[in-house]
Every structure is written in C-alpha cells, then in structure tokens.
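Aim 2, interim progress: modelling of the guanosine-5'-diphosphate-bound target.
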Amino acid sequence: MSWFSKLRDSLFKSRAALSRVEELARERRPLDAAFWEELEETLIAADFGVETTEKILESLQDVARKEFWRTSDQAIARFRTDVAAFMTRPGQRLQLAGKPAVVLVVGVNGSGKTTSIGKLAARLVREGKKVLLVAGDTFRAAAAEQLEIWGQRAGAEVIRGREGGDPAAVVFDGVSAARARGVDVCLVDTAGRLQTKVNLMEELKKIRRVIARELPDQPCETLLVLDAATGQNALSQASLFNETTQLTGLVLTKLDGTAKGGIVVAIADRVGVPVKFIGVGEGIDQLQAFEPQAFVDALFD
Ligand code: GDP
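Predicted structure of the complex, ligand included:
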C-alpha cells in the first residue's frame, strides 16, 4: 500500500465526518445562506474550530462574490485549495543542522512523545543516519525503559540518567556522547507533567540552555507533540507551550481513529508553527511527514 492509501485509510473517521462537504459539492446547490450554514456546521463538527472556520468561510464568500460563483461545486473546489494553502508554512521539513543535530521533543504525558521519537528515529536510521535517543524524562523510570525499547526497535542508541536526576545533566551527557560517537541526530525526550507547569517550563528552558551552550552555532528543532484526538484542547496546549518554549514544529498524533481531523487545520492556522509530522497509528512506520495537499486529498474523497 502506498503511503497515501495508508494516510487515507487512517483518516477514515474524519473523512466520514466531512463527507457532507463532498455531497454539498455534488448537489451543485445555490450559494445561499442555508449552504454556508451547513458547510459551517460540518467544519465545526470536524473540529476546525469556530475561528478558523469563520476565517475560511469569509474568504470563500468574498471570492464567491467577486467571481460571481453560482453553485456549491465552485465553492467547494476552492475550499479544498484554500485549506491546503492555509496549512502550508515555511520550514515544514525537519531542519537537521550541524552534527550532532538536536531535536528536542516536548508535550504532555500521554500525547505520544516517546512513540513519536521511536518512529522518527526509525525514519532517520532508514535514511542512513546514526541516531541517539536521550531519556530526558528522569521522573518516570518507565519512560526511560520505553525509550530503550524504541531504541532497540529503531536501531538507535539510548542514553539515560539516574532516576530522579537532573534532566539537563542527562541532556549534557547525551550531547557529549553524541559528539564522541559521531552521531548525526540526537532526539531528546522530556518530561510532560503539566500539573507542575512552572517547573516544567523552567526545566525545558534549562535543557535548551544546555544545548545552546554545547552547540552554540546551530539552531535546535523543538517539536511539540499533540494528541489530535483531544481536539480543541490540543490548541490550548500548543499556545501554552509556545508561550514559554520556542517551538519550531508540531507533531500531531493519533489521527487514526479520531473524527477530529479538522484540528490539524485549526492548529496550523492558529499556532503559527508548521506541522512537521503526523502520527497515523501505533506502528513504527506510522509517522508521516506532513504534506498539506495530500492531507486535504485524503480528508475529502
Ligand atoms: P508520552 O507519554 O507522550 O511519551 O506518550 P506515549 O508515546 O507513551 O504514547 C501514549 C499512547 O499513545 C501509547 O499507547 C501509544 O501507542 C499511543 N500512540 C502514540 N502515537 C499514536 C498514533 O499516532 N496513533 C495511535 N493510535 N496511537 C498512538
């Protein structure tokens, strides 16, 4: 199966939630208030969010007036192009600058951080890179153990510290080991206990400072992992992290099995940071580089 068919399959629930959009096009209805209302309701139900939905509809209505469109098929055709354009941002590819390149991965517990790191490691190893995983979550022994399992699966080495130790110290050890061993990419897992928000954010800042000190001449990718199935809640998490950590990219997980696929559009619109990867299953090869147009094509039949 091609990656596109896999993407299409994994988005089946969101596609079902949005099937009305294609019906609206096929019906070739007049562009009256009832049509716009129905489109609006469909998008909101698929978690596009009120603000993003309104933005999309306003711009569509504007073009519809200027270009004298008469029927719904015209509006929906343009809608699909608009949504893809909406999600396209500079820097959508992972930037791996310097050796070792460092990718810091943040997000609340359960969002799919460790799993995404494992999948990303496997991708990079397949591309011929030497990868090192750093267990920056020192609070849960289980987190480091899980990372070790992913390391074995992916073919990447793992550095872990003492349980309860300083995460920044583990990151320092990780970067030093990466240098000594000629590693290409260092993927850093972090703790995600949101209940201690201030501490968590301070800890992330400290980790960033260590990386900046050790590798002063290179930018560091900071990816926020968000569970797409939490819908609009993912949006507030993104704003929270973005306030305190300079995010460079987003990973949206668990898009398989949720009807809330519109959240990807809302997040791309509202957060101002590109979506770089999407998780479409629990398997090691179920992390895809995010392609806005393919995503739209897979979302709408
Ligand atoms: P962490 O606490 O953020 O490190 O989260 P984990 O990586 O441990 O993931 C939490 C759960 O989500 C695990 O059961 C994963 O298998 C699952 N998970 C992660 N990504 C995906 C995904 O893309 N699709 C599905 N269906 N499950 C996922």
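The mean pLDDT is 93. The first strand starts at residue 101 and ends at 106.
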